[in-house]
Amino acid sequence: MAKRTKKVGIVGKYGTRYGASLRKMVKKMEVTQHSKYTCVFCGKESMKRTCVGIWKCSKCNKCVAGGAYVYSTTAAATVRSTIRRLRELKDDYLTFPEYRELPVNEAMGAVAESKDDATSVTGRPLIQMFISVVVMLLVAVSWAMSTQFSKSAMTYKQEYFDAAYFMVWFSTLFMTSCYPVYLLYAVAIRRGDFEKVHSEASKIFGKHGFTYLGFLWRECLFLFLWMGANYAYSRALGQKITASVASSIMSCNTAIICVLGWFVLKDRVRFSQILSVAFAIGGVVVISLDKEFAGDALGIGLAIFSTVMAACYKVLFKRVNGDASLGQVSLFMTGLGLMNTTLNLIPTAALYFTGVETIVWEYVPWGPLIGSALLGLVFNFLINFGIALLHPLIISIGMLLGLPLSAAYDILFRDMTATPKFLTGASLILLSFLLIILPFEEFVKSCRRHTETDTAETEEPVRTVAA
Fold first, then answer.
1. Which residue intervals of 390-438 are DSSP H helices?
2. Which of 24, 377, 421, 446 has the greatest number of beta carbons closer than 10 A?
3. Could you mention a single GO BP entry for this protein (predicted)?
4. What pairing do the DSSP bridges indicate for beta strands 102-103 and 93-94?
5. Distance between CA atoms of residues 185 and 216, nearest Å
6. Rounded to an integer, what distance in angstroms lies between the CA atom of residue 398 and that of residue 140?
7. What angle in degrees, to the nearest 10, is found between the helix axes of 243-250 and 392-413?
8. Would you tell me how many other CB atoms lie within 10 Å of the CB of residue 343?
9. C-alpha–C-alpha distance, residues 388 and 234, integer Å
10. What angle do CA 287, 365, 296 make, to 5 degrees?
11. For residue range 105-159, what is the model confidence (pLDDT) as tens digits?
12. Exposure pattern of 298-318 as b/e (b: 16+ CB <10 Å)?
């Protein structure tokens, strides 16, 4: 007997496992026939039904299928975070009011233009592909070169400049520009209303918007994790390990995020994730045995500590802030930069005046410092905007490309030799990274489903003939 499933709001075919939680989540987001509909792309109440299951915005000419992006005005503020939550559910189909059995990648990701713009859409896949390739290359270059600049700053005349905390504080100052750039994009380019945009972004500090208490405890908590991860990473670069080794170890944070997600976020344990964790641990162990690329045990330990702190930052951010929108993340990063400018100035000055960190201002390597800060800012911009506007997989592939780029820089410009241990360890870490970012289990599910469908279609004519 076929398993019965419940229809939950606009979403169906989830059965009893997700029924209760989804009913609460989508109760306030159901399509109501008596109200105007808000387009989540332009924010205008201009969505109209053009044919069965197809809705079109008269302002921005975006079309969507089956009400996937069409909600009442009161629910438009939470639509993006809920859609991200629905994407995380690992079922194969969603059911909408007018579309039955619509695949996830078509319902959630494919936003088609209207028929009036058919002539302008013909070249859009090529443009999208070109933009994705450019973003991937920029992510790879910014990540690899920011690490190389940090390495140069930390190893340049250490008797005159040995100040990892000051370097992290200086780089974090640039994060204050995140929210102004987002406002320029949302208000000036997308023609959004400033009050609505800012009100939606302020919810990162609480349901009621900006409050001093919500701002302080969130920013202080994550500033501590941010400084811990970046300080340990910068201090590791000052030891006798190469930038490519530090980058390879840092890429293992995806595996650590999976482990923390099992306990903190109650994520489902997957076989591919277990393999990824095993490969990541094996890769770090093999690289640590290489005396040429990783000749310092303290540097390896600091890089591992930095990786753990970075993973804690990401998991706790997900736990505390949930599925934050692009504007909310940008406002949060600007707040982080402001807290760093004021509050974090105290330990920076204390380390300098007590002599713990050495800074001779005439010999400060401002070139590598500014280069590392700017490239780090570009990297964070690309992560935030790339995930929101393109796809998280594009950012992950860009980070993956940054590892061989950093290794090539070490070999060409730092006179390093690619040893078998380094290549083996880096390959294990790359394999661990691939197991996390690529949906192998979903691919196997899809193959099984298509196989069962083909088998059923083949058996049906046989039954008819037999009858």
1. 392-413, 420-437
2. 377
3. translation
4. antiparallel
5. 27
6. 5
7. 160
8. 13
9. 28
10. 20
11. 333 333 333 333 333 333 467 787 788 888 888 988 999 999 999 999 998 888 9
12. ebbebbbbbbbbbbbbbbbbb
